[in-house]
Amino acid sequence: MWWWAYTHDGPGFTMFGPAHMGVIVSLLLACVLIVLARNWFQGSIRKQNLFRFGCVAIFIAGEVLLQIWYIDASAWDPSFALPLHLSSIAWIAAIFMLLTRNQTWFEITFFVGAGSAFLTIVTPDVGNYGFPHFRFFHFFITHALVIVVVVYMMAVENMQLRFRSVFRVWLYLNGYAACMFIFNLWVDGNYMYLMEKPPGPSPFDWFGPWPYYIFALQVVALFVFIGMYGFYWWFFRKFPSSVNKRSP
C-alpha cells in the first residue's frame, strides 16, 4: 500500500502542481460557499451542530490516523510526532472554538490557526508525499479545515474580534514558543521550527539563518496579525447581515 507507506516510493509532491492547485481552489470555493450559505445554516440549529461536530470529528480522526501511521511504520518519536507544532495547535484551538464558541479560542484560531494554515497550504512542508498518499490528504485537509471553520464562525456563528486581540494572541504565541523552545531542548525536537528551518522552501528562508529568523518572525507575525484584522474589518462590513454589528 504505497499510499500508506511511511517510506514513500509513489508519486511525489509538486508545489503548485495540479494536485496542489486543486487544494487551493477547493479551499477558496469552500469558503465562498459557506459565506453564501450562511442564511441556510443560521436557519437551523441542527445544521449548525452537524457542521461543528462533524468538523471536530474530522480533526480528531485525522490526528488518530496520523499517530497510527507513525506507529505502524515504527517511526513514532516524541521529537516530532506529538501534536505540538503550530499547525497542531491550530486544529486543537479550532476544536475548542467549535465546541465552546468561546471568544478567546476564536481569536487564537483566527490569528494563529488561519494565518499559519494559509501560509502552510501555499508553501507546504509535506515532504515527497504526493496525491493520493495518506499524508497528502491528512496535511491539506487538516490545514484547510482550520480556515474553513474560521470563516464559518465569522459568517454563521457571528464571532467577532476587537483590535486588542491582535496583541493578546501575539503574546500567547510568544509564550507558547518559549515553552516549546525548552521542550525542544529536552526531546531534541524542532517543534515550531525553533531549532532550525524546515527542510523545504518556506517563508522562513526570507528571514536569514538561525536564530535570526526567530526574532524576525516575531515582528512579522505581529504585522501579519494586524493585516488579518484588516481583512476581518473588511469582511465585517462587506457582509453586515451575517453579524450583529458592534464597534470593533
Automatic annotation (TrEMBL):
InterPro entries linked to this entry? CHP02206_TP0381
Q: Which Pfam families does the annotation name?
A: TMEM164
Q: From what superkingdom does this record's organism come?
A: Bacteria
Q: Which keywords annotate this record?
A: Membrane, Transmembrane, Transmembrane helix
Is Transcription regulation given among the entry's keywords? no
Task: Extract the signal peptide range.
Answer: none
Question: Which parts of the chain span the membrane according to its record?
Answer: 20-38, 50-70, 82-99, 106-124, 136-155, 167-187, 212-236
The protein in question is named TIGR02206 family membrane protein
Native organism is Salicibibacter cibi
